[in-house]
C-alpha cells in the first residue's frame, strides 16, 4: 500500500496544483519512483489511497503501471482519513495476508525485496534520527521487538502490517501512532534499523536536499 492521500500543506505552493506524490525528484514523480522500485522487488499488486486531487493521481498511475503492476485505489474523499484511518479503509482491498505499507513522501534506496525475504510478521523499518526529528519515535529491544524505551530511532514510513493490527480499530479519521503503540504493548511489532539512504521529503527544503543526492 502506498500512502498518497495527504494534502502536503507543508509544501506550500508546490502542491497547490498537484498532490505531493506527483512532485518531481531526479526525473521521476515520487509515486512513479516508488512503483518502479516496488516492481524491481517483485511486488505486482498495489493499493494506493487517495484524497487530495485524487483524480490527478488516479489518471497518472492508472489501473496497470508501466511495470505491469495491478493497482487498486482506496478513495477516501475529503478530508483524508490520516494514516491509521487510511489503512483501515483499505483493508478490504489489501486482504488477509500481511502487506507492505510505504509513505509516498520518502526518498530511499531501501530494497523492498528484503521485506519479502523475512518472516511476514508486522515490522517497522527504523532509521537514524534526522534533524527534523531528533528525539526519534521507537526503540528496539535486543530481541528485535519495537519498544518505546530509548534509545529511540525514527520510523521510516516503511513497514509490514497485518489485518490483525487493525482488528479492533473502528473506521474513521485517525492517526497510526495509537494503533502502533497498542501493538507494541502486546509485543506484536518487530523492528529493523536501516542505515542506507533515507530522506523524508515533506517540505520544500527537504525535497531540494533529496534532489541534491541524485537518482537512486
Key descriptive features of the protein:
Spore Coat Polysaccharide Biosynthesis Protein SpsA, Chain A; alpha/beta; 216 residues; 13 strands; two-stranded antiparallel ribbon; seven-stranded mixed beta sheet
Question: Topology of this protein?
Answer:
Blueprint: E1 2-3, E2 24-25, E3 28-29, H1 30-40, E4 45-50, H2 54-61, E5 70-75, H3 82-94, E6 99-103, E7 106-108, H4 113-117, E8 123-127, E9 139-140, E10 146-147, E11 154-161, H5 177-185, E12 190-194, E13 198-200, H6 204-213
Parallel strand pairs: 1-4, 1-6, 4-5, 8-12
Antiparallel strand pairs: 2-3, 6-11, 7-13, 8-11, 9-10
**Main sheet makeup:** 7 strands, mixed
Look at the structure and give the CATH class.
Answer: Alpha Beta
Q: Give, in spatial order, the strands making up the sheet with the most strands.
A: 5-4-1-6-11-8-12
For the termini, the CA-CA separation is: 21 Å
Please name the CATH architecture: Alpha-Beta Complex
Can you count the beta strands? 13
Structural class: alpha/beta
Explain how this protein is built:
This protein has 216 residues and is α/β, with parallel strands linked by helices. It has one domain: Spore Coat Polysaccharide Biosynthesis Protein SpsA, Chain A, CATH 3.90.550.10. It is 26% helix and 24% strand. A 7-stranded mixed beta sheet has the order 5-4-1-6-11-8-12. It has a two-stranded antiparallel sheet with strand order 2-3. The chain has a two-stranded antiparallel sheet with strand order 7-13. Helix 2 links the parallel strand 4 and strand 5. The longest helix has 13 residues. The radius of gyration is 16 Å and the shape is globular. 38% of the residues are buried. The model has no long low-confidence stretch (mean pLDDT 95).
Amino acid at each position: 500500500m502506498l500512502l498518497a492521500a495527504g494534502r502536503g500543506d507543508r509544501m506550500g505552493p508546490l502542491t497547490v496544483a498537484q498532490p505531493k506524490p506527483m512532485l518531481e525528484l531526479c526525473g521521476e514523480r515520487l509515486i512513479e519512483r516508488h512503483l518502479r522500485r516496488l516492481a524491481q522487488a517483485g511486488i505486482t499488486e498495489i493499493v494506493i489511497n487517495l484524497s487530495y486531487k485524487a483524480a490527478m493521481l488516479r489518471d497518472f498511475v492508472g489501473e496497470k503501471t508501466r511495470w505491469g503492476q495491478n493497482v487498486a485505489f482506496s478513495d477516501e474523499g475529503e478530508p483524508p482519513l490520516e494514516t491509521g484511518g487510511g489503512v483501515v479503509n483499505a483493508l478490504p482491498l489489501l486482504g488477509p495476508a500481511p502487506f507492505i505499507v510505504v509513505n509516498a513522501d520518502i526518498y530511499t534506496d531501501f530494497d523492498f525485496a528484503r521485506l519479502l525475504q523475512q518472516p511476514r510478521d508486522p515490522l517497522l523499518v527504523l532509521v537514524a534520527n534526522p534533524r527534523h526529528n531528533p528525539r526519534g519515535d521507537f526503540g528496539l529491544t535486543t530481541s528485535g521487538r519495537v519498544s518505546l524505551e530509548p534509545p529511540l530511532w525514527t520510523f521510516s514510513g516503511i513497514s509490514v502490517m497485518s489485518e490483525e493490527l487493525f482488528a479492533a480499530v473502528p473506521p474513521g479519521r485517525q492517526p497510526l501512532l495509537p494503533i502502533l503503540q497498542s501493538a507494541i504493548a502486546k509485543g506484536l511489532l518487530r523492528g529493523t534499523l536501516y542505515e542506507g539512504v533515507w530522506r523524508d521529503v515533506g517540505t520544500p527544503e527537504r525535497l531540494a536536499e533529496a534532489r541534491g543526492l541524485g537518482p537512486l
